[in-house]
């Protein structure tokens, strides 16, 4: 599903912020990505959602080596990846419904199907009553639920979340993490970068740890089958 081999990343002429990063994610797996501020978590995620290209080494996504993928085909790969950011990145002048519908409309989905899928998904994240609200009228947690709905509306194979529960209270953080678990149980591979070690400890999912741009040995791994059997929280 995802393979990194001796990957390095530098911005411009700066120092390498990721060094010799190698790992393999199986389809349907769930991983936390942790490490101190500046360790390179966001940078690693940018490589995963194709916003940066590695300076060296090899990244393979969905069986396709990125170095051999022409730029024109990157958009197609990106459509298989759902991304969630700490700061939501919603369009404030568009309703909850229209924000969530955006990826479908860009893909040319027939409007009747859009209406059906978006209504179902907004209800699934628990925001039925806010369907026609504008993002600035929502709480931070509610905005994140909208951002997650938008990220998963196309059933992406890979979901990447960068600090999705930063600045969000504990109860809402659990609700958000449950949505990622649900998506994982439906087959998406999920990677969540976080500082919230309490959440990591309670969820007992495999952890990848970065330190000064190096990936430390992962302590343990779950097969996708084992992952399906896991309780949501310990
Ligand atoms: N666009 C950029 N240009 C230059 N340097 C960058 C850029 N983005 C990140 N860096 C540098 O790369 C290093 C890793 O940053 P990154 O944001 O990936 O770390 P992080 O682990 O996500 O940190 P945090 O937990 O604070 O979000 C840092 O030294 C940072 O200053």
Automatic annotation (TrEMBL):
Keyword rRNA-binding among UniProt keywords: no
GO molecular function ontology, one term from the record: ATP hydrolysis activity
UniProt key word Cell division: yes
All copies of domain ABC transporter, residue ranges: 2-233
Annotated Gene Ontology cellular component terms: plasma membrane
Annotated GO biological process: cell division
Keywords annotated in UniProt: ATP-binding, Cell cycle, Cell division, Cell membrane, Membrane, Nucleotide-binding
Protein's cellular compartments: Cell inner membrane; Cell membrane
Superkingdom assignment: Bacteria
Membrane topology annotation: Peripheral membrane protein
InterPro entries in the record: AAA+_ATPase (IPR003593), ABC_transporter-like_ATP-bd (IPR003439), ABC_transporter-like_CS (IPR017871), ABC_transpr_LolD-like (IPR015854), Cell_div_FtsE (IPR005286), P-loop_NTPase (IPR027417)
PANTHER family xref list: CELL DIVISION ATP-BINDING PROTEIN FTSE, IMPORT ATP-BINDING PROTEIN
Entry's family note: Belongs to the ABC transporter superfamily.
Subunit composition and interactions: Homodimer. Forms a membrane-associated complex with FtsX.
The protein's role, per its UniProt record: Part of the ABC transporter FtsEX involved in cellular division. Important for assembly or stability of the septal ring.
Protein name: Cell division ATP-binding protein FtsE
Gene source species: Aerophototrophica crusticola
Lineage, top ranks: Bacteria, Pseudomonadati, Pseudomonadota, Alphaproteobacteria, Rhodospirillales
Gene name, Swiss-Prot/TrEMBL: ftsE
């Amino acid at each position: 599903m995802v393979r990194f081999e001796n990957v390095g990343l530098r911005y411009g002429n700066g120092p390498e912020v990721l060094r010799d990063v190698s790992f393999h994610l199986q389809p349907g797996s769930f991983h936390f990505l942790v490490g101190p501020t500046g360790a390179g978590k966001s940078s690693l995620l940018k490589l995963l959602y194709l916003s940066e290209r590695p300076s060296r080494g090899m990244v393979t996504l969905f069986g396709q080596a990125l170095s051999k993928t022409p730029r024109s085909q990157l958009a197609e790969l990106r459509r298989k990846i759902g991304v969630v950011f700490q700061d939501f990145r919603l369009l404030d002048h568009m309703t909850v419904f229209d924000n969530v519908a955006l990826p479908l409309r860009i893909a040319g989905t027939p409007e009747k199907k859009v209406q059906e899928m978006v209504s179902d998904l907004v209800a699934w994240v628990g925001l039925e009553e806010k369907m026609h609200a504008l993002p600035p009228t929502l709480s931070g947690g509610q905005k994140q639920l909208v951002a997650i709905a938008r990220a998963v509306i196309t059933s992406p194979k890979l979901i990447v979340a960068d600090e999705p529960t930063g600045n969000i209270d504990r109860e809402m953080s659990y609700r958000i993490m449950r949505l990622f678990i649900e998506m994982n149980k439906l087959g998406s591979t999920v990677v969540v970068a976080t500082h919230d070690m309490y959440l990591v400890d309670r969820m007992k999912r495999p952890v990848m740890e970065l330190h000064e741009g190096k990936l430390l040995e992962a302590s343990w791994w779950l097969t996708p089958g084992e992952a399906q059997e896991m309780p949501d929280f310990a």
